[in-house]
Write a structure and sequence with these properties.
100 residues; alpha+beta; 2,3-Dihydroxybiphenyl 1,2-Dioxygenase, domain 1; 4-stranded mixed beta sheet; two-stranded antiparallel ribbon; 4 helices; 6 strands; 31% strand; globular
């Protein structure tokens, strides 16, 4: 069974979005989807050892906010610094495969 076939018919329990501003992202998603409560974690990569970015030593920093729409967790991801896949996504450098 292919990886795609493993997801057919299954319910997703989380979806993530890269946003340029967490506060504005929370405000917008709250308005659109009725999310009342958010949990926000900053400096998630702080203290991580052995960070890797495309096979090289990584220096990324990021923060995330988490809320729920029914049973589905909504994750808002924010690039805080360094080289990261979040920054790549924002400026359009991520490949199609990484954007799926």
């Amino acid at each position: 069974m292919s990886k795609v076939e493993q997801f057919i018919g299954r319910q997703f329990d989380q979806i993530a979005f890269v946003v340029p501003d967490l506060a504005k992202g929370r405000e917008s998603f709250s308005r659109m989807f009725g999310i009342g409560n958010w949990n926000t974690w900053t400096d998630l990569a702080k203290g991580q050892k052995d960070k890797v970015y495309y096979g090289e030593e990584g220096d990324f920093e990021f923060s995330c906010s988490y809320g729920y729409v029914g049973d589905i967790q909504v994750e808002l991801c924010h690039h805080d610094g360094g080289r990261s896949i979040y920054k790549d996504w924002q400026i359009g450098r991520a490949s199609c495969r990484e954007r799926v």
